[in-house]
Amino acid sequence: ALPISKLLWKKYPLPENAENMYYFSELALTLNEPEERIAPTDSRLRPDQRLMENGKWDEANIEKQRLEEKQRAVRRQREAEALDALEEGKDYKGYQHLRLERTAHPISRELICVYKGRYRRRSDDHTS
């Protein structure tokens, strides 16, 4: 005989107009809602994400392309600085992540990122 079963999860009905919201549940629809006191790097603060959440798809795509091009420009600048340093025989450290350190894995010697042990304590604390 099987032991007495216990209900662990129950599916709630989908919200009205679910077909227009990818058939997401009420919970799924609220996961990207903005909150106070979140990290400045939280993806919910990205302008393209906010535009998409507000149904402004064309504007969101334009903003996403603008942000990506800005990132590419920064990368090109860093690469140019590294090349200039190499040609001048100078050491170039490049971008230094606040919380991760690039190092060789002790066994495989593969390049990996290791957590430095520093974390962000509060939404207004950008130093630790």
What does this structure look like?
With about 130 residues, the protein is mainly α. It has three helices and two strands; from the N terminus they run αααββ. The protein has a two-stranded antiparallel ribbon with strand order 1-2. It is flat. The termini are far apart. The relative contact order is 0.08. The mean pLDDT is about 85.
Q: Which descriptors would you attach to this protein?
A:
2 strands; 34% helix
Roughly what fraction of the amino acids lie in strands? 5-15%
Contiguous low-pLDDT stretches (5 residues minimum) are none
The structure class reads: mainly alpha
Mean pLDDT: 86
Order of helices and strands: HHHEE
> What is the count of β-strands?
2
- Which descriptor suits the 3D outline? flat
Q: Strand order across the biggest sheet?
A: 1-2
Biggest beta sheet attributes: 2 strands, antiparallel
Number of helices: 3
Report, as a whole number of angstroms, the end-to-end distance.
57 Å
The helicity comes to 25-40%
**What's the gyration radius in Å?**
23 Å
In short:
The protein contains 3 helices and 2 strands. By secondary structure, it is mainly alpha-helical.
Produce the secondary structure layout.
Layout: H1 26-30, H2 47-53, H3 57-87, E1 100-104, E2 111-115
Antiparallel strand pairs: 1-2
Helix pairs in contact: 2-3
